[in-house]
Amino acid sequence: MTLQPVVLDAAAVSRCRRRVHLDHDPSAVGSPRARPDPALEQRRADAVEHRVVVGQVLASQACGGEWVEVPSGAPTQERLMATGAAVAAGARYIWGGLLPLDVPGARTGSPDLLVRAAGGYHPVIIVRHRITDAGSGALCTQLDQLDQPLAAPDPQRKVRSQTRDQLRLAHLVRMLQAAGWAAGPPEFGAVIGMDADVVLWHDLAAPTWPDGHSTLAEYDRRFADRLAVVRAAASGGPALAQPSRVNECRHCSWWPTCEPQLSARLDVSLVLRGEPAVALRAVGVETVADLAALDPAGEPPVPLGVMPFADAVALARAWQRELSVVRRVPRVAVPRADVELDVDLESFGEAGAYLWGCHLTYADGMALSEPPGYRAFATWCPLPDADEGRSFAEFWGWLRALRAQAAAAGRSFAAYCYNAQAENRWLYSSVERFAGQHGVPSAAEITEFVESGEWVDLFALVSEWFLCAHGKGLKRIAPQAGFEWHDPEAGGENSMRWYRDAVGMNDVPPEQAAAQRARLLVYNSDDVAATLALRRWMCSPAVLQIPLAADL
């Protein structure tokens, strides 16, 4: 049988292998698929708009004929010819160019920008997420200095791990090489992120991956694998990729096709997703029942990495018994205090944190000057905006004063959140971005609070004391404590849509914007009430009704 000609874009190397198969399997046409995710579609639209804005900024900084723009709306052949002509003319910067199909290599794709260097061009991509964190060592140039030889280690920034960006750049480098347009070696590519305040350069040939190989080597390995998967699917040959639950499944349109297959065979990935499931299948542990039948006190058949082997067996047994939660230990301990504060933030993607919500409780019944209950510190200016710094400073000043009052009164204090990783990220990010603004604390003050013992991560406690067969997000675990959200559509993805209405990013009447602001406040107040309900439940006799893992 003659293989069908196929070409893959850069996304294929980062996607689930089974998804790549189904995308190219003619027999999968008509199989169940989820409806398009409105939140995902909106993020894509935002990313397109971000690229346009950044492109306009870059073009305004270019000098005369050094900047060549290929019309995005032109027919494909015209764009290819215009890009080729710009390359032949040695244009310094080419925006919106279209690369020739790498048919022998089966690649398709285009950079946002090509930057001329010795021997050819480096690819630059524009993304709508953050690409660096506070630290040092990231190889950067300023936005008005797009040339790679000017790049130098930045003493204020370190690279944030965004493997998809690096693999996409590797894909584009291989296409440039196939066209004879590539600069190097060494092979570089660059990214401009959400803040659009720096150009981050990646040495794609450097040994930066965990086992010491390069981005290009990792890309080549993945691309060869995905190409084999696609060719098998397109030709009707034996499938090289079978369904297996991974993180990507939560937002994949093919999940309605894969999930029934996994459930029908009680696949082990329903309990342990990702690489652990692959490793278990390789040694014959293919189903939930296979895993549940193992001796939790014995040697694991393969290293799992993600959790102790005994916990994995207990999770499988809980899943068999349709138990959402089991206890890992006989007694559950939660730090308590006289003055307790539940904290939850709401962010708009990576644009900023627009709302810090707090629920104050006096566990000993003795109130300070602040009344108990819910209080919110918010900005309703579309993010990013400096008013975010104002709302954060007000939140922190209020929390600081509350801690001081409790200490002066000889009362213990504790603040609680669910998954401190998120809150800590925005605490540190806020002090970095709004340093010097009135009321914004220093990083040292944030560190003192985070490391004080008064900042309690309930997610960490849940992870330590419980096994959760169907996830341990707050929306999963709080119902065990009898808590329910007022809004039946409560969830992070939906809150993004509500936020866009609330701040006028969508064309909605003022009364609808006001209603969505109120909806977000109710949603946030429920989140902090949920952590309070969860904490009380964990400290009550009712928690002892949850089965003990050792008894399964």
Topology:
Blueprint: H1 17-24, H2 38-61, E1 67-69, H3 76-88, E2 93-95, E3 113-117, E4 120-126, E5 132-134, E6 138-141, E7 152-154, E8 157-159, H4 163-179, E9 188-192, E10 199-203, H5 215-235, H6 255-264, H7 275-282, H8 288-292, H9 309-320, E11 325-327, E12 339-347, E13 353-362, E14 373-378, H10 387-408, E15 413-417, H11 420-433, H12 443-450, E16 455-457, H13 458-465, E17 466-468, H14 474-477, H15 492-502, H16 510-538
Parallel strand pairs: 1-2, 4-9, 12-15, 15-16
Antiparallel strand pairs: 2-3, 3-4, 5-8, 6-7, 6-10, 9-10, 11-17, 12-13, 13-14
Helix pairs in contact: 1-5, 4-5, 11-12, 15-16
Structural write-up:
It is a single chain. With 552 residues, the chain is of the alpha+beta class. The chain contains 16 helices and 17 strands. An eight-stranded mixed beta sheet has the order 1-2-3-4-9-10-6-7. Helix 3 (76-88) links the parallel strand 1 (67-69) and strand 2. The longest helix has 29 residues, at 510-538. The chain starts with 16 loop residues before the first helix and ends in a 14-residue tail after the last helix.
Q: Work out the count of structural domains.
A: 3
Q: How many H/I helices?
A: 16
* Main sheet: strands, sense, barrel: 8 strands, mixed
The helix content is 25-40%
Structural class: alpha+beta
Average pLDDT rating: 92
Low-confidence parts lasting 5 or more residues at pLDDT below 50?
none
How many strands? 17
